[in-house]
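User: Could you check the structure of this?
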Amino acid sequence: MDDLEKMRSGRWLHAVTPPIGEALHRTEELLFALNQLPPSRRGEREAILRRLLGHLGKGCTIHSPFRCDFGEQIRIGDGFVGNFNLTILDEAPVTIGDRVQIGPNVGIYTVSHALLPDERAEGIMRSLPVRIGNDVWIGGHAVIMQGVTIGDGAVIGAGSVVTRDIPPRVIAVGNPCRVLRPVTDRDSVREYL
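Assistant: Sure, the predicted structure tokens are below.
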């Protein structure tokens, strides 16, 4: 098992290695090109995103600047909107469903570093996957931590720090993020249209 496979498997490892460094550098180059392109050059932007990401569904929008560590670990469904300053540290897989909307300045972090300073200085870390279901809305400045699953139809309030799984069709807020209440038909705003 090579260093990249160890990293993706959730094992503790020394992450400062040439293969990991080379993969990070490749991603940095693609992100630099993406983030320099104007929004009007949609075709070129999409081509870079398709080279960068493991999967990008149909009808997706990712506003610049966008940042990630590897890209190939990220799988995004159809109809995705990622607002400005979305950061995804994808040392482990990040799976995002269909019709997910993510506000500005959101961070999705799969990586955790060693707690002891000498181990952290050696680059010891591990990563756990993040899963975001279909029809999820994540408010601006939220942070999604490693190993978390967010259920279909959930709403994560702005500024929340999600440290544990969130069930489907709930509104969850706070630091640490906790379920406030279910999303119900009474939340409909259709009568105001």
